[in-house]
């Protein structure tokens, strides 16, 4: 359902001067109450660009009024280029809905038109206007009221009309100007609304970013931390990738990286929930299979669909920094670069399934030796699933390992290493990656 447009203070359409005698539009009016009537003949020149107000299409006005005597006369109307404004007439809201096609930019509504179901609406004298605003939320609306009933006209503007006019002052020049003003004002309101929505989305993105990509809690640890995140090309919003790192009171450093399937705000919000739950459970002393089992319960309760799952990699590094426990839940294996050895993937053959796929699943914890000086890189699959050139071939883990080996040999470390790795993967892909990429790096010096 379209979001209501913020209302602006109306610019009076009638700004003094004696109104000229109103004249009938004649062949320019498409009168819906006359079945079989010939279609309006629009001069070819009326299809020219009417300026910034209506792009390449001529302005079209829909008049909604049901005066059986036909006393409402719409004068001949001209746009800013002096070309005729097309006019259609509807006698009720049902006909208005049928005539409200995409080429209509403005509606002139007689406030005297009774609203269908008025008994249900009560004594609301603007019920018809409110129905029209719901029917045509993207159109400019001019309210037509009795001469001297400025209070009702002002109330119509407050409710959502762009301006109001007096019924007996339908001067062609002033009405044409009022239509152009109303269309431009509606366009300005729409732009303002979109900018406001953009600011709200930016604020939401920042909140999600703080939730997905937090500041690590490593006070008292000698390990160095670096991380990098790059959203996929089709989204400004962060996706479902998330990570975290904390040090518990016993000196153990716990690191985690995960990926919720999908890329929308719901997946991002679920990633935030899982990250926060992981941090809380880790600080409470859980790890390994017990922690992942609890996280699966959280995911099952919070996801919108049974098809939603999340991959996860957790590492708990002993206080002396020489050993670590590793658990994988359907996630790529971390890469380790030890002093005096080439970079390689940690050996892991018995990982468990992604969270949310199998009930009562298990995630065995494997002990790995890290050595004295090392760098440990955790990453999401966006880093290895980018394509190589225009073909269908993916980068894959083996090529990713070769790339990191070469970059380490060039002396790259920390943030510089991660930046180079993500940029090279993007370049190999021939542009921005489809999937989000998150990479986390922990270093222990000699």
Describe the structure in your own words:
The protein has 446 residues and is α/β, with parallel strands linked by helices. Helices cover 30% and strands 20% of the residues. It has nine helices and 16 strands. It has helices at 93-99, 118-121, 127-135, 150-159, 172-212, 265-283, 288-302, 396-409, 414-429, and strands spanning 29-31, 60-64, 86-90, 106-110, 140-145, 163-166, 224-230, 241-247, 253-260, 310-317, 323-329, 335-338, 344-345, 366-369, 374-379, 437-444. The strands form three sheets. The chain has a six-stranded parallel β-sheet with strand order 1-3-2-4-5-6. Strand 10 and strand 11 form a beta hairpin. Helix 6 (265-283) runs antiparallel to helix 7. It is elongated, with a radius of gyration of 33 Å. The model is unreliable at 1-56 (pLDDT under 50).
